[in-house]
Amino acid sequence: MKQMRHIRVRLPAREDYEIEIGVNALDRLGEIARRSLSPHARRLALVSNARVFKLYGASVVRYLRAAGFDAPHWLMGDGERHKNLRTAERALGFFSESKLERTDAVVALGGGVVGDLAGFAAAVYLRGIPLLQAPTTLLAQIDASVGGKTAVNTRDGKNLIGAFHQPRAVVISTETLLTLPPRELTAGWCEAIKQGAVGSRRLFEQTRRFLVAERMSETARDLKRTHQRADELASLIAAQCSFKAKIVAGDEREDVGRMDARSRRILNFGHTAAHALESVTHYRRFRHGEAVGYGMLVAAEISEKLGMLDASELESLQACVRLAGRLPRADDLDERAILRAITSDKKSVGGHVRWVLLERIGRARIVDGREIPPRVVRDALRAALAGSLTDKK
């Protein structure tokens, strides 16, 4: 059996929890749940979607039942457009019908959308019941499942209604990546690049070397080679989770007053433009990570045009995003609509957007949008969206 990695998320104001990473980690989900939850827990309500449940649902239910839990399941729609209050209400109805009690828990089996929706529903049901995250996409494994952010979208924007609700455990089974389509891998690798870009050059280089060696997003043959190097993949995922865990431990609720390079806000690098791209395309063209790929390039272009970031560093980031895989076309979108969406970003403070920019690979700087001329933002947007990273087939 391959080695399991363990990352402890240490939170000053609440109980620590473990992230467990390895091949076939889902086999241990029942055991981990029993260890992480109250001895009075009897039911684990499993939330997933049809695609993921078809692959892993029967096995997960079996593991949970073997650990002594009842394990009713409910399937939500697949995709960002289903992450809304209507779906959350249906999830809450499922919890009620399943007679969940305060000591019971919710298990989120799927990608970031499932994790966000199930986590939000768990946060508000009976004023909060325990949550276990079992992420099956790369983006969810390194980012969405770690840190306790849960939310749903509204017509006015993404993640506008949510709660901080930390999981009791995160179980990352790396073999689930073998079943992902290339675009899901591209989305995940863009988030991995983001964390290296703002967190440490070492993490950025570790991610870049893995992508150079594997090119996971291009062919099935590459994915098989990745399977042969599963231990290296698990190490990289562990490094990504460890970085995020440290950021979360130091700034769990994203203090709006913090502007330093270890504020949780630095994890929003690329997200200002990304959320705008998702909004103007009604969450139908881009996977979240693909939009972040473009958003990083926009923010890096702004950084370079302001004289903060050396041109060679911008080129390094562009090359790394290119390694992640092709991005959907973006140069046909309404520039004015994107700019309007940027100005209404939910991360604004005092009515003004705060951009996460780069001083260099591995060091971010938070900048008030009033310090950035509108022309610079417009030119950076044009340069990033008109680049050679798109798939125009």
Q: If you had to describe this structure to a student in words, what would you say it looks like?
A:
This protein has a seven-stranded mixed beta sheet, sandwiched between helices. Strands 7-8 form a two-stranded antiparallel sheet. The chain has 393 residues and is of the alpha/beta class. Helices cover 47% and strands 17% of the residues. The chain folds into two domains: 5-179, Rossmann fold (3-Layer(aba) Sandwich), CATH 3.40.50; 182-238 and 250-391, Dehydroquinate synthase-like, alpha domain (Up-down Bundle). The longest helix is centred in the middle third of the chain and has 21 residues, at 230-250. It starts with a strand and ends with a strand. The protein is built from 14 helices and 13 strands. The protein has helices at 29-36, 50-66, 85-97, 112-124, 138-144, 182-199, 201-214, 220-228, 230-250, 271-280, 288-305, 311-324, 335-343, 374-385, and strands spanning 5-9, 17-22, 44-49, 73-76, 105-110, 131-135, 149-154, 157-164, 169-173, 327-328, 354-360, 363-368, 390-391.
